[in-house]
Amino acid sequence: MNFRLLITGFVLLALQSCYYDSEEELYPLSVCDTTEVSYSGDVIPVFETHCYSCHNNSTAASFGENIRLENFEDVAYYAGNGSLYGSVAWIAPWSAMPDYKLDKCSQNRIKAWVDQGMKQN
Ligand code: HEC
Q: How many Å lie between the centroid of ligand 1 and the Cα of residue 24?
């Protein structure tokens, strides 16, 4: 067996396995701060961009299974039963929401808001 060829092969393999650069890790666009999230500042903006098209008070009946994310009491209900974070993080058995996956920061902000006691702040 050509030992030298074998060694070269291993070295090449090893070098290649080191080559894992993810743009997100190398150049984080912004830091996702979840130390103190608020309903109005962190949760509602996510809903406005990604959820109200189906879950606001007028669209919910036709497109959002009557789930109205404009009402704080309803949001608190879905947050409390686990379905709010479960659906945005695509955790079974909850339905994955929306049909594309939210960025990790938005998911983490929603989780932080739930974990911090679902305040109406
Ligand atoms: C294109 C329309 C649409 C969008 C956008 C959408 N939803 Fe939904 N959502 C639905 C429908 C329809 C259902 C009920 C059917 C189902 O469970 O798949 C639902 C169900 C849910 C449920 C209940 C899940 C369960 O398993 O009980 C939650 C919570 C929810 N949506 C939250 C959200 C959130 C939060 C967003 C935004 C991040 C969002 N949805 C975006 C249409 C949508």
A: 28
